[in-house]
Write a structure and sequence with these properties.
Largest interface: A-B, 26 and 22 residues
Distance between the termini of chain B: 41 Å
Shape of chain A: globular
Largest sheet of chain B: 6 strands, mixed
Helix content of chain A: under 10%
Structural class of chain B: mainly beta
Shape of chain B: globular
Radius of gyration of chain B: 14 Å
Largest sheet of chain A: 7 strands, mixed
Number of helices of chain B: 0
Strand content of chain A: over 45%
Number of helices of chain A: 0
Oligomer: heterodimer
Chain lengths: 112, 114
């Protein structure tokens, strides 16, 4: 158990809908990262937050947004969903950027 | 920008064979280097790490040495087991960039046959 909790584990939704993925980092970790893992594109970095502030952006679509709350949990919002958004979405946390990151079990999103 | 390149898989080995998975990187600063493993249906788990040149990370029989001169961090294991079958990711965190994001390789799938 990495100590990073992601909910839900599985999500099936229709195209055009909006979903929210939730991540609770390890106790004491200030950095949260979101990644998308699809079969044909490997692990893609989406966005990073540190202590409530956005720190880095990767290949995140404009239809996607995220935030980190005062209690340090984070949410990833995906809207106007398309079939191609079907993937595993991982959250990771670390104390700070140059230490190891710990990953949650992921949320498997299926858009039908 | 920073990047990680690792050998394409799948890699198929017999039990007790020697394993090498190559990983090279480019970075603007002095990155920390990591190997993660992903078992089927699970998240990524940290396997080992090295934070400076010539450091050797080791865990569960796996080893990797941070080679700054060749910008490499190859993963090795002397005798693989069926239970080592998984996807292995090489990654770096570049603390000089200020962004602190982790860059992952594309992953190498290892299949070990009994």
């Amino acid at each position: 158990d990495s100590g990073v909790t992601q909910t839900p584990k599985h999500l099936i939704t229709a195209t055009g809908q909006r979903v929210t993925l939730r991540c609770s980092p390890r106790s004491g970790d200030l950095s949260v990262y979101w990644y998308q893992q699809s079969l044909d594109q490997g692990l893609q970095f989406l966005i990073q937050y540190y202590n409530g502030e956005e720190r880095a952006k990767g290949n995140i679509l404009e239809r996607f947004s995220a935030q980190q709350f005062p209690d340090l949990h984070s949410e990833l919002n995906l809207s106007s969903l398309e079939l191609g958004d079907s993937a595993l979405y991982f959250c990771a946390s670390s104390v700070q950027g140059n230490t190891e990151a710990f990953f949650g079990q992921g949320t498997r999103l299926t858009v039908v | 920008g920073d990047s990680v390149t690792q050998m394409e898989g799948p890699v198929t080995l017999s039990e007790e064979a020697f394993l090498t998975i190559n990983c090279t990187y480019t970075a603007t600063g002095y990155p920390s280097l990591f190997w993660y493993v992903q078992y089927p249906g699970e998240g990524l788990q940290l396997l080992l790490k090295a934070t400076k040149a010539d450091d050797k990370g080791s865990n569960k029989g796996f080893e990797a040495t941070y080679r700054k001169e060749t910008t490499s961090f190859h993963l090795e294991k002397g005798s693989v087991q069926v239970s080592d079958s998984a996807v292995y990711f090489c990654a770096l965190s570049d603390r000089a960039s200020g962004t602190y994001k982790y860059i992952f390789g594309t992953g190498t799938r290892l299949k070990v046959l009994a």
